[in-house]
TrEMBL record:
It comes from Brevundimonas intermedia. One of its GO terms (molecular function) is phosphoribosylglycinamide formyltransferase activity. The lineage of its organism: Bacteria, Pseudomonadati, Pseudomonadota, Alphaproteobacteria, Caulobacterales. It catalyses: N(1)-(5-phospho-beta-D-ribosyl)glycinamide + (6R)-10-formyltetrahydrofolate = N(2)-formyl-N(1)-(5-phospho-beta-D-ribosyl)glycinamide + (6S)-5,6,7,8-tetrahydrofolate + H(+). The keyword Transferase applies. Its EC number is 2.1.2.2. This is Phosphoribosylglycinamide formyltransferase. One of its GO terms (biological process) is 'de novo' IMP biosynthetic process. It is an enzyme of class 2 (transferase).
C-alpha cells in the first residue's frame, strides 16, 4: 500500500507536478491523493486535476488574520481525504503550531537553499551575494520554526560566474524536481515499516 500524500500549493505547482508523476511509479512509496491550495485558481490545481488528482481550494482571505481557523478547515479536508503525510510545495503561508503539531513528523517541506543557510526568502540572491560556490535545495520535516526542521535530504547546484538569482533559481528548481520525490518516497516507505 502506498502512503496517501496531500500536496499543499499556492501557485503554479511545478514541484507538485513532479511529485504526482513520480508517485505514479510502481516502486514509489507514496501516491498524491489530494492537492490543496490556499489560493482559488492557483495554476497547480488545474495541472493536478488534469493528472487525475482530487483538488480543493480553501482561500485564506475570508478568515482574515485568524490563521488557525483557516488551518482547521484545511485539516478537515486533509483528514477527509485519508491523507497520511503532507508535502508543502510552494505553500506560501506561515503555519501555526496547531497545524504543525497535528501533523508532527508527517509534514515535509522543500526549501531552495542548503539549510541551515538562508532560511526564509531571497535565498538565491543571498547565496550569490555571499560569494558561495554552490547553492541547492533541502527537504526537511516541518517544525514550529521557519525552515528549521530536521533535514531529510539535500541536492547541491553550482553557482557559476555571472549567475543571476533567476538563472540559479531555474537550476535549483530542476534539482528540486528530482530530490523531493526521492526523499518523499523513502520517507513514506520508512513510515510503512514502523
Amino acid at each position: 500500500m502506498k502512503t496517501r500524500v496531500a500536496v499543499l500549493i499556492s501557485g503554479a505547482g511545478s514541484n507538485m507536478a513532479a511529485l504526482i508523476d513520480a508517485g505514479q511509479a510502481p516502486d514509489s512509496g507514496y501516491e498524491v491523493a489530494l492537492v490543496l491550495s490556499n489560493v482559488e485558481g492557483a495554476g497547480g490545481l488545474a495541472i493536478a486535476a488534469a493528472k487525475g488528482v482530487a483538488t480543493v481550494a480553501i482561500p485564506h482571505k475570508p478568515f482574515g488574520k485568524d490563521r488557525e481557523a483557516h488551518e482547521r478547515v484545511v485539516d478537515e479536508a486533509l483528514r477527509a481525504a485519508g491523507v497520511e503525510v503532507v508535502a508543502l510545495a510552494g505553500y506560501m503561508r506561515v503555519l501555526t503550531p496547531w497545524l504543525v503539531g497535528g501533523w508532527r513528523e508527517r509534514m515535509l517541506n522543500i526549501h531552495p537553499s542548503l539549510l541551515p543557510l538562508y532560511p526564509g526568502l531571497d535565498t538565491h540572491a543571498r547565496a550569490i551575494a555571499a560569494g558561495d560556490a554552490e547553492a541547492g535545495c533541502t527537504v526537511h520535516l516541518v517544525t514550529e520554526g521557519v525552515d528549521e526542521g530536521p533535514i531529510l535530504g539535500q541536492a547541491r547546484v553550482p553557482i557559476v560566474q555571472g549567475d543571476t538569482p533567476e538563472a540559479l533559481a531555474e537550476r535549483v528548481k530542476t534539482a528540486e524536481h528530482t530530490l523531493y520525490p526521492h526523499v518523499l518516497s523513502a520517507f513514506c516507505k520508512a513510515l510503512g515499516r514502523d
